[in-house]
């Protein structure tokens, strides 16, 4: 996505490229929509647009007016507006999952309001964070589309009807039936839509994104599970009907978060067709691993050129030695402590029938927040 290239040609040396200019169509646009979009374009700090922004706007407006979609994405968007609505809702879900996974870290997957790039300049760097976001976004599209297919919300797809006859597992034989999640269709459409921009340019960043997009798609398929319904006298389960279903999206998020921890630094090979692992002693395979090209900033201080928001004011845990601990989160700058009152529900009791009654209890707690840098404008470059 062009959100990593901007207009700076020097980015190519770091595996970052200028994006491809989106093509526009001449469909008439309602005056209200045009005014809204014009205001967004004027007041949004631009790196460049991303399809991720579909989560913030309606699909029709995205297709017709917002730059950021390459021609193939725009065509898919216009041909399947119902799918774009699903992808938009899915975008909100995977962004929430990203923020859950990094809630205790210096970089917390924060988004920028009214910014077409969603994450800002942090995605310009070919870092571990970019690797995770691309994988997570691709997984989110697969999950959202597959779910919508199984629920009958889309005309173009439904349940997976290919599984027929008998099979067996560690519990014995069963009959395929029910409504298996159509994961293959979800992967097929996600690959066509999400990968479209990366396939237009052959550079290191495009290869990195394509690789991580694939890892994201496979993360959802990895956790497909067998669900069964028993048939027989008194639920004896003498006969079973089974189908394949996706696991909760959290499992994919947890898996990709671990892959972030073990992500592999790579460089482009000489003929420009693939990767070489930067560590020459590495003997494994990168097939199922996230890959990155550049080291991450430490995210301690505000640095707008790097997209870092810094950790000043972030809440930290005084007693933790982990990434959410005040020593790590505050980068050694120290922290401020404020005593606050919190109201929580307590002494909850079940009342017949059928409610739970709780009391409001006040408690006084200490909240610790990271101090700013002594020179707060040190890296605050506009």
From TrEMBL:
One of its GO terms (cellular component) is extracellular space. Signal peptide: none annotated. Keywords: Developmental protein, Disulfide bond, Extracellular matrix, Glycoprotein, Lipoprotein, Secreted, Wnt signaling pathway. It comes from the Eukaryota. Residues 1-10 have a biased composition (Polar residues). GO terms for molecular function: cytokine activity; frizzled binding. It holds the Pfam family wnt. It is found in: Secreted, Extracellular space, Extracellular matrix. GO terms for biological process: canonical Wnt signaling pathway; cell fate commitment; neuron differentiation. Residues 1-26 are annotated as: Disordered. Belongs to the Wnt family. Ligand for members of the frizzled family of seven transmembrane receptors. This is Protein Wnt. The lineage of its organism: Eukaryota, Metazoa, Chordata, Craniata, Vertebrata.
């Amino acid at each position: 996505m062009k959100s990593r290239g901007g207009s700076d040609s020097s980015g190519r040396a770091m595996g970052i490229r200028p994006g491809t200019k989106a093509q526009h169509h001449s469909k008439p646009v309602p005056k209200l929509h045009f005014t809204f979009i014009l205001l967004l374009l004027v007041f949004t700090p631009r790196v460049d647009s991303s399809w991720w922004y579909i989560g913030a706007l309606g699909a029709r407006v995205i297709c017709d007016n917002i730059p950021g979609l390459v021609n193939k994405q725009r065509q898919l968007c216009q041909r399947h507006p119902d799918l774009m609505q699903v992808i938009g809702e899915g975008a909100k879900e995977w962004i929430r999952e990203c923020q859950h996974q990094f809630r205790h870290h210096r970089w917390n997957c924060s988004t920028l309001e009214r910014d077409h790039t969603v994450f800002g300049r942090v995605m310009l760097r070919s870092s571990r964070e970019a690797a995770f976001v691309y994988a997570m976004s691709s997984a989110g599209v697969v999950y959202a589309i597959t779910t919508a297919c199984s629920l009958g919300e889309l005309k173009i797809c439904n349940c997976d009807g290919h599984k027929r006859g008998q099979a067996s597992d560690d519990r014995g034989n069963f009959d395929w039936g029910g409504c298996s999640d159509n994961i293959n269709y979800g992967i097929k459409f996600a690959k066509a839509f999400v990968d479209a921009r990366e396939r237009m340019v052959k550079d290191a960043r495009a290869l990195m994104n394509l690789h991580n997009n694939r890892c994201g798609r496979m993360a959802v398929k990895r956790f497909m599970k067998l669900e069964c319904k028993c048939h027989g006298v008194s639920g004896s389960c003498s006969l079973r009907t089974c189908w394949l279903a996706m696991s909760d999206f959290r499992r994919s998020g947890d898996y990709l978060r671990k892959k972030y921890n073990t992500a592999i630094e790579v460089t482009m090979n000489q003929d420009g067709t693939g990767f070489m692992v930067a560590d020459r002693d590495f003997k494994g395979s990168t097939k199922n691993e996230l890959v990155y090209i550049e080291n991450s900033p430490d995210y301690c201080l505000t640095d707008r050129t790097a997209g870092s928001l810094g950790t000043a004011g972030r809440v930290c845990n005084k007693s933790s030695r982990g990434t959410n601990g005040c020593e790590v989160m505050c980068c050694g700058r120290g922290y401020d402590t404020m005593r606050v009152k919190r109201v929580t529900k307590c002494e909850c009791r079940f009342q017949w029938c059928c409610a739970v009654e709780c009391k409001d209890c006040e408690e006084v707690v200490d909240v610790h927040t990271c101090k700013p840098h002594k020179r707060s404008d040190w890296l605050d470059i506009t």
